[in-house]
Amino acid sequence: MIENMLSGFSILLDGWPVLAALLGLTLGIVVGAVPGLTATMTIAILMPFTFFLPAAVSIGFLLGIYKGAVYGGSIPAILINIPGTAAAAATCLDGATMAKKGEAKKALQISLYASVIGDLTATVVLIAVAAPLAAIAVKFSAPEYTLLFVFSLTLIAMVSGPNAMKGLLSAGVGGLIGCVGMDPASGVQRYIFGITDFLGGIPLVPLLIGMFALAEVLDRVSKPFLMPGASIQKTQGPPLSRTEFKKCIPTIFRSSAIGTVIGALPGLGAEIACWIAYGIAKKRSKHPEEFGKGSAEGVAAAESSNNATVPATLVPMLVFGIPGDVVTAVLLGAFISQGLTPGPLLFINHGPVIYALYALLIITNIALVFLGLVAIRGFSKILALPQSYVFACVTILAVAGSYAINSNFFDVSIMFIGGIAGFIMRRCGIPVAPFIIALLLTPLLENNFRQALAMSDGSLLIFVQRPIAASLLAFFLFIAFMLYRGSRKLGVTD
Asked: Can you say how many angstroms the Cα of residue 89 is from the centroid of all Cα atoms in its chain?
């Protein structure tokens, strides 16, 4: 472990990984501050352009975008009452109200400090638990991984939207698309319809670019644009006092813990964490009547929880190869493209790179304080950017990124098909996340399920006869029950 840590820090001495991570963090804040742009969209578009870079530089850059965008979403949420990202939706309730009362600066400051603390808390947890979990995961075999994948897919489908049936439909279709190509066991061609480009499966990265970038553009251009400069609150007013900050500290740490736990569970993510933490903060507050009317605690709860999910979502992805949310589903493709196959062996085969990424997470967390202060002063001007120009650039980058992967126009066509499909799914209220994650996990689920049945001569009892598998099954059922009961109490599933 010590050797890996030293080797990881030596990777950073090159300087380029740190510079790339800081550049990604800055870009992420800008992306988050522009309504309509998302971390998923940006990472999907820029990922093909990072394939030729060293792993620490490429992944560090993309992680910086992820972290910056989640924080940056709070800026428009406070200044124009429109969340820059879905994770900042709860921030609108109190942040925008504070801005209208002339306390925009205070709201932005508490958002920044809560985001930094939440992010740092979850990063420490990630560093502390990932390697020990990987040591346990090494003992897993096909039955345990089968249960893990089934639980993850079910959980993701159930919590990805207000309609669980649409989530299950999305996951089911994603699973079918994941079967396209050659059967890994028999070599039989499945669902390729005579198209040889499908023999290796659906091109993943172009599909991701289409479903998250082009689909977002199509969805936005079909709606009225936010007029530049409309209803933007000035970033002025009294600063956050020490007394006010101290009152928010218990809420920040409680919400950070909530965000960390929720982020580590596949499929939940920041969008759900912010609402659960906000609801609990309101119940535990001495002044619950102030929530929704400009409460600094409300802003602190939402922002500390959603930023805590960022490092936490890396736990299931790094240890088990299961994306914690839709952003890490895209990051999973980046890891694989760099030859870093997520799973318990990742820490053995590529330990120095993992510890270099840990260090970059901490460095970007510290840098977020300073970049956030700059954002508070001047990034509100970004909100005045004409969205027509922004989305024109996004479309150009989407086409260029899809073509750059294999210099193949077939990938560009897949990108356009994915964009149209993603647009239709958005309009029909069908969540995209279960589709993508099911597409990624289905080949792994299929292989492990076959191996499990081979181990038991076709008997399904292997999933309850093995101690580890039976314990996992009981634990997953308990977690599902507790999440359902908790969400009902907080009104999340209503």
From this structure: 15
Residue 494's pLDDT is 39
Q: How many CB atoms lie within 10 A of CB 33?
A: 27
Beta bridge partners of 288: none
State which H helix or E strand residue 162 sits in: none
Report which of 117, 110, 74 is spatially closest to residue 296, judged by C-alpha positions. 110
Beta bridge partners of 189: 182
Query: In 189-295, which ranges are continuous DSSP H helix?
Result: 204-209, 215-221, 242-264, 269-284
DSSP string, 113-158: HHHHHHHHHHHHHHHHHHHHHHHHHTT--HHHHHHHHHHHHHHHHH
The separation between CA 11 and the C-alpha centre of its own chain, rounded to angstroms, equals: 26
Mean pLDDT over the full length of the chain: 83
Burial annotation 268-299 (CB, 10 A radius, 16+ → b, else e): bbbbbbbbbbbbbbbeebeeeebbeebbbbbb
Rounded to 10 degrees, the C-alpha dihedral 441/443/444/446 comes to 120
φ, ψ of residue 177 in degrees (nearest 5):
-65, -30
CA proximity to 290, closest of 467, 299, 476? 299
383 pLDDT exceeds 80?
no
3-state SS class at 220: helix
Calpha distance 98→92 (Å, rounded): 9
* Per-residue CA distances from 81 to 89, 210, 222 (Å): 9, 28, 21
Q: What φ, ψ does residue 283 adopt, rounded to 5°?
A: -70, -35
What confidence score (pLDDT) does residue 227 get? Answer: 45
If DSSP codes are grouped into helix, strand and coil, which group holds residue 187? Answer: coil
Global pTM value: 0.81
Helix (H, G, I), strand (E, B) or coil at 52: coil
Cα–Cα distances (Å) from 328 to 104, 120, 147, 194, 370, in that order, read: 32, 18, 20, 32, 26
Question: From CA 90, how far away is CA 78, in angstroms rounded?
Answer: 10
- Token representation of residue 291: 């929530």
Distance, CA of 308 to CA of 316 (rounded, Å): 14
- Read off the tokens for 37: 């742009």
